[in-house]
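Re: that backbone. Tokens:
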């Protein structure tokens, strides 16, 4: 597994020494990233050099090579991912400082009793006077985490913390990972239902198919707040936006195109159904799983084999999990190809373009972080009871409208992007009738 590793090196502070280190790194197949000067003395310099490497063994080999250079010492080297995760990525901080006895009276006893009594009488006040209106539970059992598969809930925690960080930074939402140690659908649903009153929304994450579909459906039916499985719907929103932009690049209209979906797992099913529900003329899909085929067909998706999809689709979206599945000879001139399986796509964009595709991209740009913070913030702003097709469609078209002419998607770290998506989703919730003013998040 590829990794970024930082080496702290003591290097002679004379002409050409840093170049000598860089050459050694290149000779060992490393790709240099950041170079940070920690300290410079008269005769030596202390520098942190970050290098992209193949795996842990490659990192250890490079450490030996660098340590063998005359005058160079390797003080330490670490995988940067572990540095970034040291101590965990989340902590709970108060929004109100307690600096006086009056603060104690206001925030706790006796003042808190008046607020609790008011909420008991008027439950909708909880959205305004507690964190519930700005909070989301990220619920998982770790049964399908990224490309790692079933690694369990505890091992999934770094992923959930990462999701929560994006919520906090991009949408001012307090997101709490909730690890649920069961693969039983009934037990999972019951657990989420019991903790749900403390949160304004329920974000489902990294749950294997087909269980994820039933879990989401049952929780939507059971709970008064919005529920969304991000792997299904967040990914679909960002992919729909990318498809709109890709078609714009080549002078096509997505709604008049035939769209082919390769792979009908959680993400693929979500993409195909959202594109279909968004009004695209024809959506066809391939997947060897009979149950996945039946589920998609029930939603109006035309089922076909891979060769037919590739032959008849103007736009192809692939989420099969099978690198190299699409061969260059399957591409036809003018086709738009989004091969999204990570880290290795169904076909490399360069190969697709060389085979005649008008536009091609892989999954490095299509990141669902562009979707879920703004979608849930918009839902909370509206006090929405659900996240419906109209809200997802509004998010996708808004993202497409914010994308610069030369890009496929907008900047994922631009707060304005997420705020704009949130407002579009809020308005769509109001217009589609799922907004509940009494449950709406108060203005910041």
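Recovered sequence:
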């Amino acid at each position: 597994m590829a990794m970024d590793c930082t080496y702290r090196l003591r290097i002679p502070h004379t002409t050409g020494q840093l170049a000598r280190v860089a050459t050694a790194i290149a000779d060992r197949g490393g790709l240099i990233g950041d170079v940070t000067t920690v300290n410079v003395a008269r005769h030596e310099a202390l520098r942190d050099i970050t290098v992209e490497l193949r795996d842990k063994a490659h990192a250890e080999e490079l450490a030996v090579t660098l340590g063998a250079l005359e005058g160079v010492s390797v003080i330490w080297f670490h995988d940067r991912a572990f540095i970034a995760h040291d101590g965990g990525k989340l902590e709970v901080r108060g929004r109100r400082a307690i600096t006086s006895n009056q603060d104690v009276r206001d925030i706790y006893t006796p003042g808190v009793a008046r607020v609790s009594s008011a909420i008991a009488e008027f439950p909708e006040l909880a959205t305004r006077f507690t964190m519930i209106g700005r909070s989301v539970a990220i619920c998982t059992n770790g049964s399908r985490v990224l490309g790692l598969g079933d690694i369990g809930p505890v091992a999934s925690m770094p992923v959930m913390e990462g999701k929560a960080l994006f919520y906090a930074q991009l949408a001012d939402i307090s997101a709490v990972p909730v690890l649920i140690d069961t693969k039983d659908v009934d037990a999972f649903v019951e657990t989420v239902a019991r903790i749900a009153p403390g949160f304004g929304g329920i974000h489902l994450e990294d749950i294997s198919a087909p269980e994820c579909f039933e879990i989401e459906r049952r929780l939507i039916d059971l709970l008064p707040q919005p529920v969304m499985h991000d792997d299904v719907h967040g990914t679909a929103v960002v992919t729909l936006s990318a498809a709109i932009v890709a078609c714009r690049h080549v002078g096509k209209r997505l709604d008049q195109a035939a769209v082919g979906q390769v792979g009908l797992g959680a993400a693929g099913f979500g993409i195909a159904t959202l594109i279909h529900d968004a009004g695209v003329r024809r959506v066809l899909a391939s997947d060897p799983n009979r149950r996945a085929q039946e589920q998609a067909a029930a939603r109006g998706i035309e089922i076909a084999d891979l060769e037919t999809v590739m032959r008849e689709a103007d736009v192809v979206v692939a989420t099969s999990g099978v690198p190299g599945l699409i061969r260059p000879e399957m591409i036809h001139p003018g086709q738009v190809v989004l091969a999204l399986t990570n880290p290795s796509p169904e076909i490399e964009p360069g190969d697709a373009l060389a085979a005649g595709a008008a536009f091609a991209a892989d999954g490095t740009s299509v990141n669902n972080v562009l979707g879920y913070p703004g979608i849930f913030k918009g839902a909370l702003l509206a006090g929405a009871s659900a996240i419906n097709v109209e809200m997802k469609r509004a998010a996708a078209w808004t993202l497409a409208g914010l994308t610069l002419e030369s890009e496929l998607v907008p900047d994922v770290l631009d707060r304005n992007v997420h705020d704009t998506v949130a407002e579009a989703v809020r308005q769509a919730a109001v217009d589609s009738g799922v907004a509940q003013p009494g449950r709406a998040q108060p203005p910041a």
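Residues 230-249 form the longest helix (20 residues). Residues 24 and 373 are 43 Å apart (CA to CA).
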